[in-house]
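> run fold UrcA family protein
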Amino acid sequence: MFARFTSRGMRLPAIAIATLVVATQAPAQDGRPVVVYGESAGIHTERVPYGDLNLQAGADRKTLYGRVGRAVRNVCNFDSNAMTTDYRFCSAGAWSGARPQIAAAMAKSSLALNATPAGAAFITIRR
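> ok
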């Protein structure tokens, strides 16, 4: 009786595993490409939220630039005691990537299209 119980007890996990394997393989067999989003090793990223800001107000624009500046320093690992060429290069690249995003956010705000919930809008800073 004990052996018979163990045998039935093992069937359920085996069926569950077989079903899981088939279920996870099914989407890959339909011919569509599988896209995986991620970041390459060595890429540092920070997302700067601005959904809580009114970018029509000068004070809030200043706040956004301050947030982006802090994110650039974090991404580029700025050491305030030794400003190196590497930091300047990284900072210039990070800011050049951020400026179009800031401009787009301000344009969106000026068109009154900024209907995103607070915290849902981000500027992405990368190194």
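The mean pLDDT is 75.
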